[in-house]
Input
Amino acid sequence: MLDEKAYKQRVYIEDVHKYVGQEVIIAGWLYNKRSSGKIHFLLVRDGTNIIQCVVVKNECPEEVFNAYDDLTQESSIIVKGIVKEDKRSPLGYELLLTDLRIVHQAQDYPITKKEHGIDFLLDHRHLWLRSRRPFAVMRIRHEVIAAIRDFFNERGFVLIDTPIFTPTSVEGTTTLFETEYFGQKAYLTQSGQLYAEAAALAFGKVYCFGPTFRAEKSKTRRHLTEFWMVEPEVAYFDLDDDMKLAEEFVSYIVQRVLENRKMELEILERDTRHLERVSPPFPRITYDEAVDILRKNGVDFRWGDDFGGTDETIISNQFDRPVIVHRYPAEIKAFYMKRDPENEKLALAMDVLAPEGYGEIIGGSQREDDYDTLVKRLEEHQLPREPFEWYLDLRRYGSVPHAGFGLGIERTIAWICGLQHVRETIPFPRTIYRLNP
Ligand code: 4AD
Ligand code: MG
Output
Protein backbone atom coordinates (compact mmCIF):
# COMPACT_ATOMS: atom_id res chain seq x y z
CA MET A 1 0.00 0.00 0.00
CA LEU A 2 1.00 3.62 -0.51
CA ASP A 3 3.16 4.97 2.30
CA GLU A 4 1.98 7.77 4.54
CA LYS A 5 4.06 10.46 2.82
CA ALA A 6 2.75 9.54 -0.63
CA TYR A 7 0.88 12.85 -0.74
CA LYS A 8 4.23 14.57 -1.36
CA GLN A 9 4.02 13.28 -4.95
CA ARG A 10 0.39 14.21 -5.45
CA VAL A 11 -1.01 16.16 -8.35
CA TYR A 12 -4.24 18.13 -8.22
CA ILE A 13 -7.35 16.80 -9.96
CA GLU A 14 -7.62 20.05 -11.94
CA ASP A 15 -4.27 19.12 -13.55
CA VAL A 16 -4.85 15.43 -14.42
CA HIS A 17 -5.45 16.30 -18.09
CA LYS A 18 -1.68 16.77 -18.33
CA TYR A 19 -1.04 13.16 -17.32
CA VAL A 20 -3.19 11.03 -19.64
CA GLY A 21 -1.81 7.47 -19.73
CA GLN A 22 0.46 8.13 -16.77
CA GLU A 23 0.27 7.02 -13.18
CA VAL A 24 -0.50 9.82 -10.69
CA ILE A 25 -1.16 10.18 -6.99
CA ILE A 26 -4.12 12.17 -5.71
CA ALA A 27 -4.63 13.13 -2.06
CA GLY A 28 -8.13 13.94 -0.95
CA TRP A 29 -11.36 12.65 0.53
CA LEU A 30 -13.97 10.08 -0.46
CA TYR A 31 -16.98 11.97 -1.76
CA ASN A 32 -19.06 8.95 -2.68
CA LYS A 33 -18.83 5.34 -3.76
CA ARG A 34 -20.79 2.59 -5.48
CA SER A 35 -20.05 -0.92 -6.62
CA SER A 36 -21.25 -3.52 -9.08
CA GLY A 37 -19.44 -6.29 -7.17
CA LYS A 38 -16.51 -6.78 -9.53
CA ILE A 39 -15.93 -3.06 -10.11
CA HIS A 40 -15.95 -0.36 -7.47
CA PHE A 41 -16.36 3.31 -8.32
CA LEU A 42 -14.92 5.87 -5.91
CA LEU A 43 -15.58 9.57 -6.26
CA VAL A 44 -12.56 11.32 -4.81
CA ARG A 45 -12.42 15.08 -4.25
CA ASP A 46 -9.33 17.13 -3.48
CA GLY A 47 -10.80 20.65 -3.37
CA THR A 48 -9.96 21.42 -6.98
CA ASN A 49 -12.49 18.96 -8.43
CA ILE A 50 -13.88 15.43 -8.20
CA ILE A 51 -12.48 12.44 -10.10
CA GLN A 52 -14.01 9.01 -10.52
CA CYS A 53 -11.63 6.19 -9.60
CA VAL A 54 -12.34 2.76 -11.04
CA VAL A 55 -11.22 -0.25 -8.98
CA VAL A 56 -11.31 -3.48 -10.96
CA LYS A 57 -10.96 -6.86 -9.26
CA ASN A 58 -7.80 -8.70 -10.37
CA GLU A 59 -6.33 -5.50 -11.86
CA CYS A 60 -5.14 -4.16 -8.54
CA PRO A 61 -3.78 -5.80 -5.37
CA GLU A 62 -6.49 -7.67 -3.48
CA GLU A 63 -6.05 -5.56 -0.34
CA VAL A 64 -6.68 -2.43 -2.41
CA PHE A 65 -9.85 -3.92 -3.87
CA ASN A 66 -11.04 -5.07 -0.44
CA ALA A 67 -10.42 -1.68 1.20
CA TYR A 68 -13.73 -0.62 -0.37
CA ASP A 69 -15.73 -1.70 2.69
CA ASP A 70 -13.68 0.57 4.99
CA LEU A 71 -14.10 3.60 2.76
CA THR A 72 -16.71 5.73 4.47
CA GLN A 73 -17.91 9.07 3.16
CA GLU A 74 -15.37 11.87 3.83
CA SER A 75 -12.63 9.48 4.89
CA SER A 76 -9.34 11.01 3.84
CA ILE A 77 -7.50 8.90 1.29
CA ILE A 78 -4.50 8.92 -1.00
CA VAL A 79 -4.98 7.11 -4.29
CA LYS A 80 -2.70 6.12 -7.13
CA GLY A 81 -3.83 5.24 -10.61
CA ILE A 82 -3.55 5.68 -14.34
CA VAL A 83 -5.26 8.68 -15.92
CA LYS A 84 -7.74 7.72 -18.67
CA GLU A 85 -9.80 10.00 -20.83
CA ASP A 86 -13.49 9.51 -20.19
CA LYS A 87 -15.82 11.67 -22.23
CA ARG A 88 -18.90 10.70 -20.18
CA SER A 89 -17.64 11.96 -16.82
CA PRO A 90 -18.09 15.65 -15.95
CA LEU A 91 -14.32 15.98 -15.52
CA GLY A 92 -13.49 14.24 -18.81
CA TYR A 93 -10.98 11.94 -17.09
CA GLU A 94 -11.03 9.04 -14.68
CA LEU A 95 -8.45 7.12 -12.72
CA LEU A 96 -7.83 3.38 -13.06
CA LEU A 97 -6.85 2.64 -9.49
CA THR A 98 -3.64 0.73 -8.70
CA ASP A 99 -3.04 1.64 -5.06
CA LEU A 100 -4.67 3.37 -2.13
CA ARG A 101 -4.11 4.45 1.46
CA ILE A 102 -6.70 5.43 4.05
CA VAL A 103 -5.33 8.39 6.02
CA HIS A 104 -8.26 8.79 8.36
CA GLN A 105 -11.55 6.98 8.55
CA ALA A 106 -14.54 9.28 9.05
CA GLN A 107 -17.46 7.90 11.06
CA ASP A 108 -21.11 8.72 10.32
CA TYR A 109 -20.58 11.86 8.28
CA PRO A 110 -23.75 13.86 8.95
CA ILE A 111 -24.34 15.21 5.43
CA THR A 112 -25.54 12.30 3.34
CA LYS A 113 -27.02 11.89 -0.13
CA LYS A 114 -30.54 12.39 1.20
CA GLU A 115 -32.16 15.85 1.16
CA HIS A 116 -31.31 18.01 4.16
CA GLY A 117 -33.12 21.16 5.29
CA ILE A 118 -31.34 24.48 4.97
CA ASP A 119 -31.07 24.96 8.75
CA PHE A 120 -29.42 21.58 9.16
CA LEU A 121 -26.99 22.39 6.37
CA LEU A 122 -26.17 25.83 7.80
CA ASP A 123 -25.66 24.32 11.27
CA HIS A 124 -23.09 22.08 9.57
CA ARG A 125 -21.66 24.78 7.35
CA HIS A 126 -18.11 23.82 8.39
CA LEU A 127 -18.73 20.45 6.71
CA TRP A 128 -21.25 21.53 4.08
CA LEU A 129 -18.49 23.61 2.45
CA ARG A 130 -17.14 20.30 1.10
CA SER A 131 -20.27 19.64 -0.98
CA ARG A 132 -20.64 20.31 -4.67
CA ARG A 133 -22.89 23.36 -4.46
CA PRO A 134 -20.79 25.38 -1.98
CA PHE A 135 -17.76 24.29 -4.02
CA ALA A 136 -19.20 26.03 -7.07
CA VAL A 137 -20.45 29.10 -5.21
CA MET A 138 -17.22 29.74 -3.29
CA ARG A 139 -15.10 29.39 -6.40
CA ILE A 140 -17.33 31.92 -8.14
CA ARG A 141 -17.01 34.19 -5.09
CA HIS A 142 -13.26 33.88 -5.43
CA GLU A 143 -13.46 34.84 -9.11
CA VAL A 144 -15.71 37.83 -8.38
CA ILE A 145 -13.23 39.14 -5.81
CA ALA A 146 -10.26 38.56 -8.11
CA ALA A 147 -12.10 40.38 -10.92
CA ILE A 148 -12.85 43.31 -8.62
CA ARG A 149 -9.20 43.69 -7.69
CA ASP A 150 -8.07 43.38 -11.31
CA PHE A 151 -10.63 45.93 -12.50
CA PHE A 152 -9.35 48.59 -10.12
CA ASN A 153 -5.70 47.66 -10.50
CA GLU A 154 -5.94 47.94 -14.29
CA ARG A 155 -7.40 51.43 -13.87
CA GLY A 156 -4.81 52.74 -11.43
CA PHE A 157 -7.00 52.83 -8.32
CA VAL A 158 -5.20 52.65 -4.97
CA LEU A 159 -6.56 50.21 -2.38
CA ILE A 160 -7.20 51.93 0.93
CA ASP A 161 -8.16 49.76 3.87
CA THR A 162 -10.67 51.54 6.08
CA PRO A 163 -11.20 50.89 9.80
CA ILE A 164 -13.77 48.51 11.24
CA PHE A 165 -14.09 50.24 14.63
CA THR A 166 -15.56 53.67 13.97
CA PRO A 167 -16.89 56.57 16.05
CA THR A 168 -19.73 57.42 13.61
CA SER A 169 -22.61 56.05 11.58
CA VAL A 170 -22.60 56.35 7.80
CA GLU A 171 -25.82 54.69 6.70
CA GLY A 172 -28.26 55.73 9.42
CA THR A 173 -28.25 55.09 13.15
CA THR A 174 -30.84 52.30 13.26
CA THR A 175 -28.59 49.49 12.07
CA LEU A 176 -25.48 50.24 14.14
CA PHE A 177 -23.67 47.51 16.04
CA GLU A 178 -22.40 49.19 19.15
CA THR A 179 -19.45 48.01 21.17
CA GLU A 180 -17.51 49.18 24.18
CA TYR A 181 -14.13 50.67 23.28
CA PHE A 182 -12.00 51.40 26.37
CA GLY A 183 -14.70 53.38 28.09
CA GLN A 184 -15.93 54.95 24.88
CA LYS A 185 -18.63 53.87 22.43
CA ALA A 186 -17.56 52.48 19.08
CA TYR A 187 -19.56 51.12 16.17
CA LEU A 188 -18.72 48.40 13.68
CA THR A 189 -18.42 50.05 10.30
CA GLN A 190 -21.47 50.16 8.03
CA SER A 191 -19.40 51.40 5.08
CA GLY A 192 -15.84 52.61 4.50
CA GLN A 193 -17.08 55.49 2.39
CA LEU A 194 -16.21 58.46 4.61
CA TYR A 195 -12.62 57.25 4.87
CA ALA A 196 -12.52 56.47 1.14
CA GLU A 197 -13.53 60.09 0.53
CA ALA A 198 -10.55 61.28 2.58
CA ALA A 199 -8.33 58.94 0.58
CA ALA A 200 -9.77 60.09 -2.77
CA LEU A 201 -8.60 63.62 -1.98
CA ALA A 202 -5.16 62.19 -1.24
CA PHE A 203 -4.80 59.65 -4.08
CA GLY A 204 -7.34 60.73 -6.73
CA LYS A 205 -8.99 57.35 -7.30
CA VAL A 206 -9.24 54.76 -4.58
CA TYR A 207 -11.29 51.83 -3.39
CA CYS A 208 -11.84 50.12 -0.10
CA PHE A 209 -12.93 46.54 0.23
CA GLY A 210 -13.83 44.82 3.43
CA PRO A 211 -16.47 43.46 5.75
CA THR A 212 -19.24 45.82 6.78
CA PHE A 213 -21.81 45.37 9.52
CA ARG A 214 -25.46 46.25 9.88
CA ALA A 215 -27.82 45.22 12.63
CA GLU A 216 -30.52 44.43 10.10
CA LYS A 217 -33.65 43.33 11.85
CA SER A 218 -35.24 42.56 8.51
CA LYS A 219 -35.26 38.89 7.74
CA THR A 220 -35.09 38.83 3.94
CA ARG A 221 -33.21 36.85 1.38
CA ARG A 222 -31.04 39.91 0.64
CA HIS A 223 -29.84 40.84 4.10
CA LEU A 224 -26.88 39.70 6.16
CA THR A 225 -25.60 41.39 9.31
CA GLU A 226 -22.00 40.97 8.15
CA PHE A 227 -21.35 41.39 4.44
CA TRP A 228 -18.53 42.48 2.15
CA MET A 229 -18.64 45.70 0.25
CA VAL A 230 -16.28 47.20 -2.32
CA GLU A 231 -16.39 50.98 -2.55
CA PRO A 232 -14.61 53.06 -5.18
CA GLU A 233 -14.36 56.81 -4.64
CA VAL A 234 -13.02 59.28 -7.20
CA ALA A 235 -12.11 62.97 -6.95
CA TYR A 236 -13.36 65.24 -9.72
CA PHE A 237 -16.18 62.81 -10.53
CA ASP A 238 -19.88 63.55 -10.90
CA LEU A 239 -22.96 61.34 -10.88
CA ASP A 240 -22.68 60.60 -14.61
CA ASP A 241 -19.06 59.52 -14.25
CA ASP A 242 -20.12 57.38 -11.30
CA MET A 243 -22.84 55.57 -13.26
CA LYS A 244 -20.44 54.92 -16.11
CA LEU A 245 -17.87 53.41 -13.76
CA ALA A 246 -20.58 51.26 -12.15
CA GLU A 247 -21.82 49.76 -15.42
CA GLU A 248 -18.29 49.01 -16.62
CA PHE A 249 -17.47 47.45 -13.27
CA VAL A 250 -20.51 45.17 -13.08
CA SER A 251 -20.06 44.08 -16.70
CA TYR A 252 -16.39 43.29 -16.12
CA ILE A 253 -17.19 41.09 -13.12
CA VAL A 254 -19.95 39.16 -14.90
CA GLN A 255 -17.90 38.57 -18.05
CA ARG A 256 -14.94 37.30 -16.00
CA VAL A 257 -17.12 34.74 -14.24
CA LEU A 258 -18.63 33.62 -17.56
CA GLU A 259 -15.14 33.22 -19.00
CA ASN A 260 -13.40 31.48 -16.10
CA ARG A 261 -16.12 29.68 -14.13
CA LYS A 262 -18.10 27.77 -16.72
CA MET A 263 -17.92 24.50 -14.82
CA GLU A 264 -19.12 26.11 -11.60
CA LEU A 265 -22.07 27.79 -13.34
CA GLU A 266 -22.97 24.40 -14.85
CA ILE A 267 -22.88 22.71 -11.45
CA LEU A 268 -25.36 25.34 -10.26
CA GLU A 269 -27.46 24.78 -13.41
CA ARG A 270 -27.38 28.53 -13.99
CA ASP A 271 -29.11 29.70 -17.14
CA THR A 272 -26.43 32.12 -18.32
CA ARG A 273 -28.37 33.83 -21.11
CA HIS A 274 -29.24 36.78 -18.86
CA LEU A 275 -25.61 37.12 -17.82
CA GLU A 276 -24.28 37.10 -21.37
CA ARG A 277 -26.20 40.31 -22.10
CA VAL A 278 -24.57 42.23 -19.26
CA SER A 279 -22.52 44.91 -21.04
CA PRO A 280 -22.53 48.70 -21.07
CA PRO A 281 -24.46 50.89 -21.45
CA PHE A 282 -27.09 49.97 -18.86
CA PRO A 283 -30.50 51.59 -19.18
CA ARG A 284 -30.78 54.64 -16.92
CA ILE A 285 -34.06 55.87 -15.54
CA THR A 286 -34.91 58.49 -12.93
CA TYR A 287 -36.73 57.69 -9.71
CA ASP A 288 -39.75 59.46 -11.21
CA GLU A 289 -39.69 57.18 -14.25
CA ALA A 290 -39.37 54.15 -11.98
CA VAL A 291 -42.46 55.31 -10.05
CA ASP A 292 -44.36 55.57 -13.35
CA ILE A 293 -43.38 52.00 -14.19
CA LEU A 294 -44.72 50.81 -10.83
CA ARG A 295 -48.01 52.65 -11.23
CA LYS A 296 -48.46 51.32 -14.77
CA ASN A 297 -48.03 47.87 -13.28
CA GLY A 298 -50.80 48.42 -10.80
CA VAL A 299 -48.71 49.29 -7.74
CA ASP A 300 -50.27 51.96 -5.53
CA PHE A 301 -46.96 53.75 -4.95
CA ARG A 302 -46.57 57.01 -3.03
CA TRP A 303 -43.93 59.42 -4.42
CA GLY A 304 -41.21 59.79 -1.80
CA ASP A 305 -41.22 56.21 -0.52
CA ASP A 306 -38.29 53.89 -0.99
CA PHE A 307 -38.65 50.86 -3.26
CA GLY A 308 -39.23 47.52 -1.63
CA GLY A 309 -37.99 44.19 -2.94
CA THR A 310 -41.09 43.53 -5.08
CA ASP A 311 -40.99 47.07 -6.47
CA GLU A 312 -37.39 46.57 -7.55
CA THR A 313 -38.35 43.30 -9.24
CA ILE A 314 -41.13 44.97 -11.24
CA ILE A 315 -38.79 47.80 -12.30
CA SER A 316 -35.90 45.54 -13.29
CA ASN A 317 -38.22 43.15 -15.17
CA GLN A 318 -38.73 45.89 -17.77
CA PHE A 319 -35.11 45.57 -18.89
CA ASP A 320 -32.85 42.87 -20.29
CA ARG A 321 -29.81 43.86 -18.24
CA PRO A 322 -29.12 45.72 -14.96
CA VAL A 323 -30.87 49.08 -14.75
CA ILE A 324 -29.60 52.25 -13.05
CA VAL A 325 -32.17 54.30 -11.15
CA HIS A 326 -30.98 57.81 -10.31
CA ARG A 327 -32.14 61.00 -8.57
CA TYR A 328 -34.02 59.63 -5.57
CA PRO A 329 -35.96 61.79 -3.11
CA ALA A 330 -33.30 63.23 -0.81
CA GLU A 331 -35.42 62.45 2.26
CA ILE A 332 -34.91 58.70 1.94
CA LYS A 333 -31.18 58.97 1.26
CA ALA A 334 -28.05 59.52 3.36
CA PHE A 335 -26.86 62.88 4.77
CA TYR A 336 -23.72 63.04 2.63
CA MET A 337 -25.42 63.03 -0.77
CA LYS A 338 -25.36 66.15 -2.92
CA ARG A 339 -28.72 67.56 -4.01
CA ASP A 340 -29.67 67.96 -7.64
CA PRO A 341 -29.12 71.66 -8.48
CA GLU A 342 -32.18 71.43 -10.75
CA ASN A 343 -34.45 70.09 -8.01
CA GLU A 344 -33.46 70.42 -4.35
CA LYS A 345 -35.88 67.61 -3.40
CA LEU A 346 -33.71 65.09 -5.22
CA ALA A 347 -30.37 63.58 -4.27
CA LEU A 348 -27.68 62.91 -6.88
CA ALA A 349 -27.93 59.24 -5.97
CA MET A 350 -28.03 56.10 -8.05
CA ASP A 351 -28.77 52.44 -7.44
CA VAL A 352 -28.00 49.57 -9.79
CA LEU A 353 -30.76 46.95 -9.80
CA ALA A 354 -29.83 43.47 -10.97
CA PRO A 355 -32.20 41.58 -13.29
CA GLU A 356 -34.28 38.49 -12.46
CA GLY A 357 -35.57 39.91 -9.20
CA TYR A 358 -32.19 40.25 -7.47
CA GLY A 359 -32.72 43.92 -6.68
CA GLU A 360 -30.20 46.53 -5.57
CA ILE A 361 -26.58 45.46 -5.85
CA ILE A 362 -25.03 48.96 -5.92
CA GLY A 363 -25.82 52.15 -4.07
CA GLY A 364 -23.86 55.31 -4.83
CA SER A 365 -23.92 59.07 -5.18
CA GLN A 366 -22.14 62.30 -5.80
CA ARG A 367 -21.14 63.70 -2.40
CA GLU A 368 -22.02 67.04 -0.87
CA ASP A 369 -18.79 69.03 -1.25
CA ASP A 370 -19.87 72.36 0.26
CA TYR A 371 -18.93 72.90 3.91
CA ASP A 372 -21.99 74.92 5.00
CA THR A 373 -24.46 72.63 3.27
CA LEU A 374 -22.88 69.54 4.80
CA VAL A 375 -23.04 71.08 8.28
CA LYS A 376 -26.74 71.74 7.67
CA ARG A 377 -27.28 68.12 6.56
CA LEU A 378 -25.65 66.74 9.70
CA GLU A 379 -28.06 68.86 11.74
CA GLU A 380 -31.08 67.78 9.68
CA HIS A 381 -30.13 64.16 10.24
CA GLN A 382 -29.56 64.82 13.94
CA LEU A 383 -26.03 63.54 13.76
CA PRO A 384 -23.50 64.75 16.34
CA ARG A 385 -21.05 67.29 14.99
CA GLU A 386 -17.96 66.36 16.94
CA PRO A 387 -17.15 62.88 15.53
CA PHE A 388 -17.62 64.27 12.02
CA GLU A 389 -15.14 67.16 12.42
CA TRP A 390 -12.43 65.29 10.54
CA TYR A 391 -14.90 64.62 7.72
CA LEU A 392 -15.78 68.32 7.56
CA ASP A 393 -12.06 69.05 7.15
CA LEU A 394 -12.36 67.45 3.71
CA ARG A 395 -14.67 70.36 2.80
CA ARG A 396 -12.41 72.92 4.49
CA TYR A 397 -9.24 71.99 2.67
CA GLY A 398 -9.32 71.49 -1.10
CA SER A 399 -12.91 70.31 -1.51
CA VAL A 400 -13.79 69.03 -5.00
CA PRO A 401 -16.79 67.38 -6.66
CA HIS A 402 -16.46 63.67 -5.99
CA ALA A 403 -18.52 60.52 -6.22
CA GLY A 404 -18.43 56.83 -5.50
CA PHE A 405 -20.52 53.78 -4.85
CA GLY A 406 -20.68 50.55 -2.89
CA LEU A 407 -21.26 47.12 -4.43
CA GLY A 408 -22.51 44.37 -2.13
CA ILE A 409 -20.49 41.24 -2.87
CA GLU A 410 -23.01 38.72 -1.60
CA ARG A 411 -25.96 40.12 -3.54
CA THR A 412 -23.83 40.22 -6.67
CA ILE A 413 -22.82 36.59 -6.20
CA ALA A 414 -26.41 35.50 -5.45
CA TRP A 415 -27.46 37.04 -8.75
CA ILE A 416 -24.58 35.63 -10.80
CA CYS A 417 -25.07 32.15 -9.30
CA GLY A 418 -28.88 32.34 -9.46
CA LEU A 419 -29.30 31.60 -5.73
CA GLN A 420 -32.46 32.16 -3.71
CA HIS A 421 -30.73 33.65 -0.68
CA VAL A 422 -27.52 35.57 0.05
CA ARG A 423 -26.66 33.26 2.98
CA GLU A 424 -25.18 30.71 0.56
CA THR A 425 -22.78 33.22 -0.99
CA ILE A 426 -20.53 33.72 2.04
CA PRO A 427 -18.54 30.93 3.72
CA PHE A 428 -19.96 31.48 7.21
CA PRO A 429 -23.10 33.63 7.05
CA ARG A 430 -24.17 35.96 9.84
CA THR A 431 -27.85 36.83 10.04
CA ILE A 432 -30.17 37.99 12.79
CA TYR A 433 -30.67 34.33 13.77
CA ARG A 434 -27.26 32.90 13.06
CA LEU A 435 -23.91 33.34 14.78
CA ASN A 436 -22.87 29.66 14.49
CA PRO A 437 -20.73 27.96 13.38
O1 4AD B 1 -26.73 51.29 -0.53
P1 4AD B 1 -25.74 51.13 0.59
O2 4AD B 1 -26.25 51.26 1.97
O3 4AD B 1 -24.62 52.20 0.28
C1 4AD B 1 -23.55 52.51 1.10
O4 4AD B 1 -23.25 51.92 2.09
C2 4AD B 1 -22.70 53.62 0.55
N1 4AD B 1 -21.95 54.19 1.68
C3 4AD B 1 -21.79 53.07 -0.50
C4 4AD B 1 -20.95 54.13 -1.15
O5 4AD B 1 -21.47 55.01 -1.79
N2 4AD B 1 -19.64 54.06 -0.98
O6 4AD B 1 -25.03 49.73 0.46
C5 4AD B 1 -24.32 49.38 -0.72
C6 4AD B 1 -24.62 47.96 -1.15
C7 4AD B 1 -26.08 47.67 -1.46
O7 4AD B 1 -26.42 48.08 -2.77
C8 4AD B 1 -26.15 46.18 -1.29
O8 4AD B 1 -25.66 45.52 -2.43
C9 4AD B 1 -25.18 45.93 -0.16
O9 4AD B 1 -24.32 47.05 -0.09
N3 4AD B 1 -25.88 45.77 1.12
C10 4AD B 1 -26.09 44.59 1.74
N4 4AD B 1 -25.79 43.33 1.38
C11 4AD B 1 -26.12 42.32 2.22
N5 4AD B 1 -26.73 42.52 3.41
C12 4AD B 1 -27.07 43.77 3.81
N6 4AD B 1 -27.65 43.94 4.99
C13 4AD B 1 -26.74 44.87 2.96
N7 4AD B 1 -26.91 46.22 3.04
C14 4AD B 1 -26.38 46.74 1.92
MG1 MG C 1 -28.79 51.39 -0.81
